[in-house]
Amino acid sequence: MPEEDITGAIQRLEEKFVGDEFAFQLFKTAGGYQFLTKPAYQASIGIMLKQQSKKRLSTSAMETLSIIAYKQPISKTEIENIRGVNCDYAVQKLVDKGLIEITGKAETIGRPMLFGTTPKFMEYFGINDLMELPTPKDFTGEINTIGENPELKDTDAQI
To answer: Could you tell me the pTM of the whole model?
Structure first.
């Protein structure tokens, strides 16, 4: 089947299920497509099915996962050097959840295992490509103004 036929069929499905008569629609995720509940219906369906929402990752697991996502492939020793603490438990939990996997072995002494993210990682965070991860410039916000008195700034400007 030619690629344009497939693309056309996907586009028709997206258009069909965008209407309010459907509680789900086609979403592009993890390099593929899935029918997922529309955000407006998630709470209602969750109550009806008495499902618990996804269990959140612990802070240590999230820190470890972030390091792996940005630095992959990376060894456990390198992760520990960045975090400054042992990460055996966090790495094991992330492997168990299918968010990371062993991607090979380093060519350094001892040939340590290298870790990287999985397609399930991209699905979990709703991205299609690792290039969609936030960059440091995405985190720059307003300059910290804690402790500054805006009234004093105004008077300084008038002097």
So the answer is: 0.58
pLDDT exceeds cutoff 60 at 141? no
Give alpha helix (H) positions in the chain: 3-17, 39-49, 59-71, 76-83, 88-96, 119-125, 150-158
Residue 83 is assigned to a structural domain of this protein: yes
Residues 55-88: tens digit of each pLDDT? 678 899 999 999 999 999 999 999 999 999 999 9
Question: How far is 48 from 65, CA to CA, in rounded Å?
Answer: 32
With a CB cutoff of 8 Å and minimum separation 6, the contacts of 34 are 26, 27, 123
Number of domains forming the structure of the chain: 2
- Return the CATH number at 71: 1.10.10.10
**Is residue 118 in a domain?**
yes
* Domain encompassing residue 126: 59-137
